[in-house]
Amino acid sequence: MGLLDGKVAIITGAGGGLGEAYAKLFAKEGASVVVNDLGGPRDGSGSDKGAAQKVVDDIIAAGGKAVANADDVSTMQGGENILKAALDNFGQIDILVCNAGILRDKSFANTSEQDWDLVVKVHLKGTYCCTMPVWKWMKDNGKPGVIIMTSSTSGLYGNFGQSNYGAAKAGIYGFMRVLSIEGRKYGIRVMGLAPGAFTRMTADLPGRQGQEPDPMSLPENVAPGVLFMASDLAADHTGKVLGVSSRGVREIKMVQTEGYNPGRPYTAQDVAEHASQVFFAETKERTAASA
């Protein structure tokens, strides 16, 4: 018995890297998988419709069930076509993993409007375009399901040179939080994912250029954490972000201090005088690696 027996999953950006690892593990655990990938270089400047099919061929050769889809996640028509691929081939949808993404990393002053628009379109709008048709199908058919949205430590903590990417990933966090509240009424679980792995998306981040990947940091060692999120093992969890890497799994939360609460009108000088109550104690700032 697999953890996903009888389930149908859509995984976007599954022609390689993390998405490919998710797709292969989900299929091994019994899911029928729609492998979506537009293909092409990581800056989103082209396409290769064979990327998704190669993953599908591997899944089928291993005894699994899968179908390829090469629609653009950043359009509503693309999102609807991806859902249609699931319904036409497998008759339902139970799991959506929004994983597709591109990078156009530059320091903020060097970014162009196109760099901003395209990254936000693929990540944030792409998550919307794929989620909306799946959400409506689950809601209208009374079919509980799971939607996993890929955020990033670059959006949750910040990372130099990734203003466009970080903004999109932080937006996905907010989107996930709202839908997790709305989804409770329909039995739809919505979770956020901040993965960490060595892929073509992260191979040239600061500190990684020219390095051989640590075998433990490969995508297949991250996929089990995502399988947990998608399976009934996580049935009691929604609205949460998990940081998932080869080192393990941890929840990432937004927290606040007890704050300065004078119970009367206050001045800016009052706030300054009570700064130790307003701010958290200073700690060594972490360097967030994009995923």
Can you put this structure into words, describing what you see?
With 291 residues, this protein is an alpha/beta fold. The chain has a single domain (8-256), classed as Rossmann fold, CATH 3.40.50.720. Helix content is 38%, strand content 15%. It has helices spanning 17-28, 50-61, 76-90, 113-140, 153-156, 163-183, 223-230, 268-273, 275-278; strands at residues 8-11, 32-36, 65-69, 95-98, 145-150, 188-196, 241-245, 248-252. The chain has an 8-stranded mixed β-sheet, with helices on both faces. Strand 7 (241-245) and strand 8 (248-252) form a beta hairpin. The longest helix has 28 residues, at 113-140. 44% of the residues are buried.
Number of strands: 8
Tally of contiguous helical segments: 9
Cα separation of the termini: 31 Å
Largest sheet: 8 strands, mixed
Give helix % range. Answer: 25-40%
Structural class: alpha/beta
Count of structural domains: 1
Shape: globular
InterPro entries: KR_dom, NAD(P)-bd_dom_sf, Peroxisomal_Beta-Oxidation, Sc_DH/Rdtase_CS, SDR_fam
Family: Belongs to the short-chain dehydrogenases/reductases (SDR) family.
Keywords: Oxidoreductase
Domain Ketoreductase: 7-204
